[in-house]
Write a structure and sequence with these properties.
Elements lengths: L1 E3 L8 E6 L4 E8 L3 E9 L1 H5 L6 H23 L8 E7 L3 H18 L3 E5 H7 L12 E6 L4 E8 L2 E7 L5 H11 L6 H9 L24 H16 L5 H30 L3 E5 L6 H13 L3 E3 L11 H12 L2 E3 L24
Parallel strand pairs: 2-5, 5-6, 7-10, 10-11
Antiparallel strand pairs: 1-12, 2-3, 3-4, 7-8, 8-9
Helix pairs in contact: 2-3, 4-10, 5-6, 5-7, 5-8, 6-8, 7-8, 8-9
Bound molecules: 5'-O-[(R)-(carboxyoxy)(hydroxy)phosphoryl]adenosine and zinc ion.
Zinc ion binds next to helix 4.
């Protein structure tokens, strides 16, 4: 539940806290100076031996790291706790225990420091991440949000003004990358591993399907592509070919198929909405092939593509601090008993006036 204060401070410093999955991200965003400090602790090593995130271990590690990281971020930004005017924390979607660890710290600090706290939707953080760059997209734009848990095409008319145009019917794109990596015996997280090996792959040796492109609409599906990849690999092995080159060729065919599919759907969304600005964010937006395809699409359309810098494609505190800063500046805040939401409808968020974003 959100409340509106009549007098939000004129200049503000927002502490952002991200703990939705396996990264503890802390940042400080100043309303005039922009991002002044950020730190990140990734739990990748902790979960790598299990081949995926273990929720209980994630929560414990967030609790261990969060306070030292806040101290480190304050030091980096050369500010003290009393300079902070508001706290933004990820309240969902994500792993419940992980969300609760960040939310508890955020709300306790807000209570102790007598400042407002704001609950931020993780995917809103991702889709606004390109706003932290020097060249920012103007509203309205189409956003392709591709992460480990989501693959969405959204029309964005302002902060909190989101219309979901397309979604995946099954696996998210990042999930398909992670599962492909697992079946090929590559490391975790799978996206960067598949992408690295794909660089050595020969394009054209395998041709993978582009799922759902022959059907109207903007929904997507990646589970069939994942099965196709598995079958191709099993067949190669049956024929006595489990070479690194074959793995690389499969990675290449998989990556190109995902990139093509996303590009076709983005083109369709831009045409449908009559827009020519595309924002691409979320962990998978770090992918080189996907960026190249979407850059080519936008160059052909004489439009523009916007991405976060690589370190802000994956989970981070900066995007949460940014989204929180804008919402707090618009007078919004969340009750201290706001419930974290492992599932949370992006379209249900409260809008703020787009004019206040500039
Ligand atoms: O946004 P994110 O950090 O976490 C979620 O909110 O899910 O995204 C993580 C996902 C993982 O599935 C990871 O494999 C994928 O992003 N990813 C990539 C690349 N870097 C990260 N996928 C493809 N290519 C990459 N370079
Ligand atoms: Zn994320």
């Amino acid at each position: 539940m959100q409340t509106t204060h009549s007098n939000p401070p004129s200049s503000s410093l927002t502490l952002g806290i991200e703990t939705s999955c396996d990264e503890t991200g802390i940042a400080l965003y100043h309303s005039e100076k922009g991002l002044i400090a950020h730190t990140l602790y990734s739990q990748i090593k902790l979960h790598a031996e299990y081949g995926g995130v273990v929720p209980e271990l994630a929560s414990r590690d967030h609790i261990r790291k969060i306070t030292p990281l806040i101290q480190e971020t304050l030091k980096k930004g050369q500010v003290s706790a009393k300079d902070i005017t508001g706290i933004a924390y990820t309240a969902g979607p994500g792993l419940m225990g992980a969300l609760l660890s960040g939310a508890s710290v955020a709300r306790s600090l807000a209570f102790a420091w007598q400042i407002p706290a704001i609950a931020i939707h993780h995917m809103e953080g991702h889709l606004l991440a390109p706003m932290l760059e020097d060249t920012q997209p103007e509203f309205p734009f189409i956003c392709l949000l591709v992460s480990g848990g989501h693959t969405m095409i959204i029309r964005v008319d302002g902060i909190g003004r989101y219309k979901l145009l397309g979604d995946t019917l099954d696996d998210a794109a990042g999930e398909a990358f992670d599962k492909t990596a697992k079946m090929l015996g590559l490391g975790y997280p799978g996206g960067p591993e598949v992408s690295k090996l794909a660089l050595k792959g020969e394009s054209g040796r395998y041709k993978f399907p582009r799922p759902m492109v022959d059907r109207p609409g903007l929904d997507m599906s990646f589970s069939g592509l994942k099965t196709f990849t598995l079958n191709t690999w099993l067949k190669a092995k049956e024929n006595g070919d489990d070479s690194e080159q074959t793995k690389a060729d499969i990675c290449r065919a998989f990556e190109v198929a995902v990139a093509d599919t996303l590009s076709i759907k983005c083109k369709r969304a831009l045409e449908q909405e009559g827009l020519n600005r595309l924002v691409v964010s979320g962990g998978v937006s770090a992918n080189r092939e996907i960026r190249a395809k979407l850059d080519a699409l936008m160059a052909k359309r004489k439009g523009s593509a916007f991405y976060p810098r690589l370190e802000f494609c994956t989970d981070n505190g900066a995007m949460i601090a940014y989204a929180g800063s804008k919402r707090l500046a618009a007078g919004q805040s969340s009750d201290l008993n706001f419930a974290c939401q492992p599932r949370w409808d992006l379209e249900s968020l409260e809008p703020i006036d787009p004019i206040e974003v500039a």
